[in-house]
Design brief:
This is Isoleucyl-tRNA synthetase. Keywords: Aminoacyl-tRNA synthetase, ATP-binding, Ligase, Nucleotide-binding, Protein biosynthesis. Pfam families: Anticodon_1, tRNA-synt_1. One of its GO terms (molecular function) is tRNA binding. This protein is mainly alpha-helical and 318 residues long. The protein is built from 11 helices and 4 strands. The protein has a two-stranded parallel ribbon with strand order 1-2. Strands 3-4 form a two-stranded parallel ribbon. Among the domains are: 48 residues, no CATH class; 57 residues, no CATH class. Helices cover 53% and strands 6% of the residues. Helix 1 links the parallel strand 1 and strand 2. The longest helix has 29 residues.
Length: 318
């Protein structure tokens, strides 16, 4: 069939089916294709598990525990079955490990709804601070403050990790990486630090901050577009400039020198705890725990000066 239809090729790029087909369609098509064509009919195989109700029971009409996706999206009433929307349901689907049985229900959707609102709030913050941004105000990379170089490097690592997980079909890890980057690296750290530069004594938006915010906004919007298309489209329609005019073209910051260098020994320790998953291995764990309180005190003191150079996100970078 694949070799006869226009636009299709043999073998198939991917076979996708449930665990019940391991001895069914997967096996029968494999044996048949090897006998006829001398090779497997697919390049890759993804086997997914099944969706259960919130109690972990198989859904059936007799038990009356069927969870209707349409009801989760549109809702029935505001108290018992509120409308969560399609994006929240898609966010839930991206968050679960499809290789194991997963549970779905109103409680899981409530949790995803909270995460969705936080993500939307972060994107709204970025949009709100870019309403008067122009690329003429951009700053050369070498003139950026150290904290902005640090944030740019984090952004590139974030995009690199997303692409690697996507190529391996590890969508639930993509969800975790997005959470870690947006909620911890940005909302809890960089946005908090940048407020002084954005709002205190600044008539116009500082060029280095604005360009970095624009890069963060466009990168996150592109990453979430397959998962949250409505939210991504919402962002795209409210950009102050067309996407191709939002940021000037630059080489990869990973190629231009990698991580920003830090002279202070404690800051270097903190940098390793942020970027190096190797630092979290057993041989470093006791040392990391010893200095963690010192790092927190340093962050508090640096916050008042607007010179913090780290992030609290320590995982999902391996």
């Amino acid at each position: 069939m694949l070799g006869k239809r226009n636009g299709l090729h043999f073998p198939a790029d991917l076979y996708l089916e449930g665990t019940d087909q391991q001895r069914g369609w997967f096996q029968s098509s494999l044996l048949t294709s090897i006998a006829i064509n001398g090779r497997a009919p697919y390049i890759g195989v993804i086997v997914h598990a099944f969706v259960l109700d919130e109690k972990g029971l198989k859904m059936s009409k007799s038990l009356g525990n069927i969870v209707d996706p349409y009801t989760l999206i549109r809702g029935k009433n505001q108290k018992k079955a509120p409308a969560f929307g399609a994006d929240v349901l898609r966010l839930w689907a991206s968050s679960v490990d499809y290789t194991n049985d997963v549970m779905i229900g109103p409680q899981a959707q409530h949790q995803m709804s909270d995460i969705y609102r936080k993500l939307r709030g972060a994107l709204r913050y970025l949009l709100g601070n870019l309403h008067d941004w122009r690329t003429d105000d951009s700053v050369p990379y070498d003139d950026l403050p150290r904290i902005d170089k640090h944030a740019l490097f984090q952004l590139e690592i974030f995009m690199k990790n997303i692409m690697e997980r996507d190529e391996n079909y590890q969508f639930f890890k993509i969800f975790q990486i997005i959470q870690c980057f947006v909620f911890l690296d940005l909302s809890n750290f960089y946005f908090d630090v940048a407020k002084d530069r954005l709002y205190v004594g600044a008539v116009a938006l500082p060029g280095e901050v604005a360009e970095l915010l624009a890069r963060q906004l466009l990168s996150i919007s592109r990453v979430i577009s397959p998962i949250l298309p409505h939210l991504a489209e919402d962002v795209w329609q409210n950009l102050s400039l067309p996407p191709w005019k939002m940021v000037p073209q630059r080489d990869s910051f990973l190629k231009r020198g990698g991580r920003p260098r830090m002279k202070n020994g404690l800051l270097h320790l903190m940098k390793r705890s942020i970027f190096g998953a190797k630092f979290l291995r057993r041989k470093y764990f006791s040392l990391w725990r010893k200095y963690w309180l010192q790092i927190l005190r340093l962050l508090q003191s640096e916050k008042s000066k607007g010179r913090r150079s780290g992030s609290v996100c320590r995982e999902l970078r391996a």
